[in-house]
Design a protein that fits this description.
The chain is α+β, with helices and mostly antiparallel strands. 22% of the residues lie in helices and 23% in strands. It is built from 4 helices and 4 strands; from the N terminus they run ααββββαα. It has helices at 3-23, 35-38, 181-196, 203-206, and strands at residues 50-64, 74-87, 94-105, 149-154. The chain has a 4-stranded antiparallel beta sheet with strand order 1-2-3-4. Strand 2 and strand 3 form a beta hairpin. The longest helix has 21 residues, at 3-23. It starts with a helix and ends with a helix. The model has no long low-confidence stretch (mean pLDDT 82).
Length: 207
């Protein structure tokens, strides 16, 4: 599949995550996230108090096909999202980076134009409800047998390929690329937050 299609799917699932967090209900995710993701309400807390959320870009960073490993029946794709939001009582938007883990049953070919709005088994529109099944034909929607579904919202350092040995060196895509202005923005924001964490920004830090 084209990277652009996967990045668009990841962006769609990101917005469903934001919607669920604002509602403090898992209902918006029931038909587009794996049961193990939707069973954990704590996944909503990082963005529960956000506003003015915007996506600045997305990149597919890893394709991890199933076979001979844990979750061998599933393919995984990891998409890095650059986004920003105003958190809590803050006044300015903070740049962020997250990695969306997409899961789909191995061997499935999605009908790309229909993956987010209709059931691929019967063609009925997908409605938001507390069921993981199509409300018309009762086909399982969240099992990854029809389309890519949300299986994780991760920090870049949390991503691990199933075949990646624990003591192996980190791949280049896991390391911030300072040549990318999106990466620089996130890094500078993180540095500023660390320096201001003690409430005292001395002249050397400011310089």
């Amino acid at each position: 599949e084209e990277a652009r299609v996967l990045e668009d799917r990841a962006s769609y699932l990101f917005w469903k995550w934001i919607q669920a967090a604002r509602m403090q209900q898992m209902q918006p995710l029931r038909k587009c996230a794996t049961p193990r993701f939707a069973a954990n309400p704590s996944v909503l807390q990082p963005v529960a108090q956000t506003r003015d959320v915007a996506i600045g870009g997305s990149d597919v960073v890893l394709c991890d096909p199933g076979g001979g490993a844990v979750d061998a029946d599933f393919d995984f794709v990891y998409v890095k999202l650059f986004w920003s939001a105003i958190f809590g009582q803050e006044q300015q938007a903070r740049p962020m980076t997250s990695v969306v883990r997409l899961a789909r049953k191995a061997g499935v070919a999605s009908k790309l134009s229909m993956t987010s709005v209709v059931c691929q088994s019967c063609g009925a529109p997908l409605t938001e409800s507390d069921s993981t099944q199509c409300d018309h034909c009762h086909a399982e929607i969240a099992a990854g047998a029809q389309a890519w579904v949300l299986d994780g919202m991760l920090q870049p350092g949390e991503v691990r390929e199933r075949s990646h040995a624990p003591d192996a060196s980190l791949p280049d895509w896991m390391l911030p690329n300072i040549a990318d202005p999106r990466e620089r923005q996130v890094l500078f924001a993180q540095m500023a937050a660390v320096m201001a964490s003690d409430g005292n920004l001395d002249p050397k830090e400011k310089k």
